[in-house]
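Write out the bound-state structure for flavin mononucleotide.
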Amino acid sequence: MEIDKAVRECSDRRLQTKYKNAVYVIERSFILYSFEEVAFSFNGGKDSTVLLHLLRAGYFLHKKNCCDGKPADSEKRCPIRTIYFENSRAFPEIDSFTYKMAKVYELQLDIISLDFKSGLEDLARKKPIKAIFIGTRIGDPNAVGQEQFSPSSTGWPPFMRVNPILDWSYRDVWAFLITCKVPYCSLYDQGYTSIGSIHDTTPNELLRVTDSSNKAEQFKPAYQLSDGRLERAGRRKKTPLISDGADVVVNGVKSSPQPNRSLVASIIGVGDEILYGTFEHHLIISLCKKLHSIGWKVTHNAIVRNDIDSVAEEVELRKSTNDLVILIGGVGPLHSDVTVAGVAKSFDVRLAPDEEFEEHLRHLNGIQFTGDRNEMALLPEGITELLHHEMLPVPLIKCRNVIILSATNIEELNAQWGCLLELPETLLIQLSPFISKHLSTLITDMEISTSLQNLCLRFPDVCIAGHRKSREGPLIISFVGKDIARIEAASLDLSQNFKDGTFTETNCE
Ligand SMILES: Cc1cc2nc3c(=O)[nH]c(=O)nc-3n(C[C@H](O)[C@H](O)[C@H](O)COP(=O)(O)O)c2cc1C
Ligand SMILES: Nc1ncnc2c1ncn2[C@@H]1O[C@H](COP(=O)(O)OP(=O)(O)OP(=O)(O)O)[C@@H](O)[C@H]1O
Ligand SMILES: [Mg+2]
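---
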């Protein structure tokens, strides 16, 4: 069988292991379920193309091993029931590739023109389907919590989702397609790295090449994307990020601005040593200043213990009410480094080995891990995005709207912050900056308190605060906001309640 032979004869040990495991899952499924009870969910994408050829190999080997040594009637033919959910938003190239493959390999194609759930309900009524092969891979948004055999979710018709390539990486997918020299949809040679609908998919910007001679813009083929974590960079996010007026560019697509919205962040420092008072956390203060300088509001700072539950609780609390949560501290190989585990727990996912991250760590430390795996390379499964930048020795970890910084000193923090600002996927959009005005006065707190209270009610959009550096020194009233006219109006309003000369403008805070 040509697929089996190509993989067995190649020198890629890792691909051989992945292939062996996937074919094992497929062969066992053919034993567990009769041929009429299984279906293949095929949509012409790269992952389902890999699965198509694994199914062909698995079907052939199953026939050979289980049917009294009688091989399948043809190496090519794989008459498995194949379901394709067709819709008008699919790329024509995907449609035609799907139909072509179905013809070449004699798949029993069922074209379904309903949404996934209704289509599967309809299928369950008409056919005795018990298991469906799907090309889901860890890292796909819907892979969270899935195993190689995962029953369908509550509310869906009952069937087993069989995910033979769940643990395959982007690199494994391309290694397989190229090693086996099988055809794949032409869009992947035009820079598309993951394909959704015509409305939300563009070529991956990371593959763009500009030919300076004729100004033609081209894209390298998908298999040349070196960092598989960015395979979905050409897929537009379903919920565009919010902005406070400037154009927001998400994956190269401009979205309309939402004036006067602001973005909020929380910072969580992890470390018993900070709570004991033996270590001052200058990094958190510095992060506050950095966020403020790009127009973000910091709503909450917390210091938590080096304890998985303490981290998880705090992240859980902050992630739903903030646009971004930044964690700092508790990252590394020590027993007390529990930040990553805490983040996984807060999202209710397990930690799983991340081969790409492991390679970065190995490269950095030259470590030969003694155990099976390096514990530092265990990352929250299905929700982790590695943030790569040429200035970062190891990528930073992002899980949805939570970013984990590994900086231990101010120099490292400055470097990591600089990189975050340059990476579009960090969510750190630069907003219009905050403007502040400070008035200094020698009147007492008692004399000014009522006026300030009323002022706050009239100007809820301006942050008005008073502080003094010493009991005897002047009181400084600060006005902070984004609208200079409102800040001026608030400070004028206050001055008008007192006699001339009561306030002087000052630069110092
Ligand atoms: C054959 C098949 C079975 C699916 N089974 C489930 C399921 O059991 N539970 C579920 O929540 N979604 C299920 N889905 C939906 C997918 O998880 C996912 O929502 C879908 O692929 C849409 O992905 P997209 O939003 O990236 O297009 C299934 C999809 C297919 C094609
Ligand atoms: N329209 C569809 N019809 C049938 N199966 C589908 C459809 N859309 C998704 N699937 C199933 O879900 C799997 C995962 O889809 P996904 O889009 O992540 O991968 P892909 O389309 O194979 O490759 P790519 O990531 O490059 O788009 C597919 O491999 C296929 O099994
Ligand atoms: Mg796809």
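---
The chain is about 35% helix and 20% strand.
Confidence is low (pLDDT under 50) at residues 238-260.
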